[in-house]
Specification:
Layout (H helix, E strand, L loop, with lengths): L22 H16 L11 H6 L2 H4 L13 H14 L3 H29 L3 H17 L4 H5 L4 H22 L4 H18 L6 H11 L12 H29 L5 H20 L18 H20 L4 H14 L21 H18 L9 H23 L3 H11 L4 H13 L3 H14 L4 H14 L2 H14 L4 H13 L3 H13 L5 H17 L3 H14 L2 H14 L19 H16 L3 H14 L4 H13 L3 H14 L4 H13 L3 H14 L5 H11 L3
Helix pairs in contact: 1-5, 1-6, 1-16, 4-5, 4-28, 5-6, 5-8, 6-15, 6-16, 8-9, 8-10, 9-11, 10-14, 12-13, 12-15, 13-14, 14-15, 15-16, 17-18, 18-19, 18-20, 19-20, 20-21, 21-22, 22-23, 22-24, 23-24, 24-25, 24-26, 25-26, 27-28, 28-29, 29-30, 29-31, 30-31, 31-32, 32-33
Length: 716
């Protein structure tokens, strides 16, 4: 049977039943539900990939780093993150607010799309309430938490926005406006923007073909008229394949040793069933699920492939009799295609990958509830039952989302939860160790890392972190062994290379240190702190060899790289030259012009004025912008430390206080604040030198506080 070989759409029939909800009220209700569920996500800190996507990403800070970013590199995602950084610096609630707004918009689009689709499928009686329930359930479902609360998953939200918009516009242009020109003019931009956000957008053409296959043809339309609506989209897909094809082939070749394509293809149908189970019963959500590869002829392989085959068979055999079921299941699997087909990703499963596909299942569940409500509406005693159960369902899902967001509130809580659910996977132990290190609990961090090594001896990251623990303990020999073992397993591990170079340089072994530093720079990472540290190391090596001119060149490159390390490079360059050094973040000779210190000072003063007005988040955002313009502005870093300490985030406060002290060792207030914070974190030994420095510098300015510190430390 050809795609266009379907019965024509008969004249619409008028049905009676429960009055439809007002559209504006429905939209407001969906928006309110999304806001209520995710309000507590605004304070969730940066997690996991947010480190390199946001905190260390030079793309956000330097416009020149944005040149040449293509669609296949999720350019739209990076541009939105850059806009967040420009407007709010690293104030985390800015990023969460955008994610929440996108999710709320997507829920509204699900509402409109479900209404329009069900009407075209001759389900007018259920379309209004099913659409409202679909939008509401999508807004509050805990399964979406990872996509919404995890900032780096914004690509899934952005891609779904333009994907849903494109599908909705196609429905309107194809079946209501009856205009192929409108369809092409409106759907193709949505297709391009969806692809620029996430590769899932490439399947939008398949989605509209599914709509074409299942929705009855408008009355009086010729049999092959549908071709003109799809020809531009198909041409666009072919062009996209031609452009991105080489990149995809290279990506598959790089990942094939880790996950052969055949094994990945065999495992993903089983993963689709796991997603489906979580959508129906959202219990056991996990930021890092442990899904082993599926073996051929195993029960899991047969179950996954059987479900996929049944869906395809049902779509073609019974799609006309049960179009809603056929469409929903087909949408679910099509939404999973980019991440669950030929392109092997590092992990078999990640909840945010099924964000788009979940629309189909949510629509199906909502429609089933609406049908049940319509069938018992005539029974006066029971007509309240289904609406009450639906309301209870939405409330239960909303409560689950609020609780899931609480799990995301701290890194330690999130990865402890992951360990409980994936006890045989190494990465959760490594990630938990990051937060244990930040809190100063070296013993617990070391124990967690040894557990990770025992679970996956080939993984380089736990060994690199064990090296950091050894450095913190002062055990340089153990640290060197761990960094060397890391590079044996992963020669591209730039943190281990940089740290090992420092250890070699401390021993005077410059012949082994310099190649490691150059290896870091050869990767051309977009992380300014890493670049600044690497250039500083090269400069020090050159300085020890007596190559002053070369050392000066490397110090200037470190200053130009930006980031907190640039401030240290500026001071070291001043010491080398015996005079004035350029401000951190300034460009080297012949490079792009820097922003200068005047703008940074203006942002700093603006933050102080906002603080006086009681507008703390806006003040913090202004200080972040000041630091972006002038990384060595110690007062701004100190104020940000105060802001985060007031918010209860001692770990982040410590980072900013330390940055303030490193930028200006003479900042007595920052020294005291850093010492007090370290003491609160249980690291009294680390706090003492900063207390002593404060006492030396602040005897005249803060006599009472100095006397108190002296009495506490037993100083004369």
């Amino acid at each position: 049977m050809a795609i266009g070989d379907r019965n024509e759409d008969p004249a619409p029939t008028v049905t009676t039943g429960t009055p439809a909800p007002p559209v504006r009220l429905a939209v407001l209700a969906i928006l309110a539900l999304a806001l209520a569920c995710y309000w507590n996500s605004l304070s969730v800190p940066f997690h996991f990939d947010d480190q390199h996507m946001v905190l260390d990403n030079d793309f956000l800070r330097r416009p020149e780093a944005r040149r040449g970013v293509g669609v296949h590199e999720r350019g739209l995602l990076l541009l939105t993150l850059a806009a967040n950084y420009k407007l709010g610096g690293l104030a985390v609630w800015h990023y969460h607010a955008v994610n929440l707004a996108l999710h709320a918009l997507n829920a509204v689009l699900v509402f409109f799309f479900a209404r329009a689709l069900l009407r075209r499928l001759r389900r007018e009686r259920e379309s209004e309430w099913a659409g409202l329930l679909a939008g509401s359930v999508f807004a509050v479902h805990p399964f979406a938490t990872e996509a919404v609360t995890y900032i780096s998953s914004r690509s899934a939200l952005l891609g779904a926005t333009f994907y849903l918009l494109g599908a909705l516009v196609f429905l309107k242009a194809r079946y209501e406006w009856r205009s192929s020109v409108r369809a092409a003019a409106l759907v193709l931009p949505c297709f391009a923007l969806a692809c620029a956000a996430k590769q899932d957008g490439a399947t939008l053409t398949l989605a509209v073909l599914i709509i074409e296959r299942r929705v009855p043809r408008p009355a009086g339309e010729r049999r092959w008229a549908w071709v003109k609506y799809h020809a531009p989209a198909v041409a666009c897909v072919l062009l996209g394949v031609a452009i991105a094809g080489p990149t995809v082939v290279r990506f598959v070749a790089e990942r094939a040793p880790q996950h052969p394509v055949g094994r990945y293809l065999l495992t993903e149908p089983w993963v689709a069933l796991l997603y489906l189970r979580l959508l129906v019963v959202p219990v056991g959500l996990n930021v890092d699920p442990d899904v082993p590869a599926v073996v051929l002829w195993s029960a899991r392989a047969l179950a996954g492939l059987g479900a996929l085959g049944t869906t395809v068979w049902f779509f073609w055999r019974f799609g006309r009799r049960a179009p809603v079921v056929a469409f929903a299941l087909a949408w679910f699997y099509v939404g999973l295609l980019p991440s669950s087909s030929l392109i092997p990703l590092e992990d078999f499963m990640a909840e945010h990958r099924a964000y788009l596909g979940s629309v189909g299942i949510v629509l199906l569940l909502a429609w089933v509830v609406a049908v049940a409500a319509a069938r018992i509406a005539a029974r006066q005693r029971l007509r309240w039952l289904v609406p009450a159960l639906a309301a209870a369902w939405v409330v239960a899902l909303a409560a689950g989302t609020v609780l899931r967001n609480r799990t995301w509130q701290t890194g330690a809580r999130l990865w402890t939860d992951a360990i409980e659910k994936s006890p045989r996977k190494a990465r959760p132990y490594s990630n938990l160790a990051i937060y244990l290190l930040e809190s100063g609990d070296l013993s617990a961090a070391e124990e967690s890392l040894h557990k990770a090594v025992s679970l996956n001896p080939a993984a380089p990251e736990p060994r690199a972190m064990l090296g950091l623990v050894a450095v913190r303990r002062g055990d340089r020999a153990t640290a060197q062994r761990q960094f060397e073992a890391t590079l044996e397993r992963d020669p591209t591990h730039y943190q281990a290379a940089n740290n090992l170079a420092i250890l070699y340089a401390e021993q005077g072994d410059y012949a082994r240190a310099e190649p490691l530093v150059r290896r870091v720079l050869a990767r051309k990472l977009s992380y300014p702190d890493t670049h600044a540290a690497a250039y500083r190391n090269l400069a020090k090596l050159a300085e020890r060899r007596g190559a002053t001119a070369e050392a000066e060149r490397h110090y200037r490159a470190a200053v130009a790289a930006g980031g907190p390390g640039a401030a240290e490079a500026s001071a070291e360059l001043a010491a080398l030259l015996g005079g004035e050094a350029p401000a951190a973040g300034a460009s080297p000779p012949g490079g792009p012009a820097g922003t200068g210190g005047a703008g940074a000072r203006a942002e700093f003063e603006r933050g102080n004025r906002l603080l006086a007005e009681g507008r703390l988040p806006e003040a913090a955002a202004a200080w972040e912008r000041a630091l972006a313009l002038e990384p060595a502005l110690s007062e701004a870093a100190n104020n940000l430390g105060n802001y985060h300490l007031q918010g209860g985030d001692r770990t982040r406060a410590e980072r900013y206080y330390r940055r303030a002290v490193e930028s200006s060792p003479a900042n007595a207030e920052a020294c005291f604040n850093l010492a007090a914070t370290l003491e609160q974190l249980g690291r009294a030994a680390e706090a003492r030198p900063f207390y002593e420095r404060f006492v030396r510098m602040a005897a005249g300015a803060h006599p009472e506080r100095v006397r108190e510190v002296k009495a506490r430390l037993g100083l004369p």
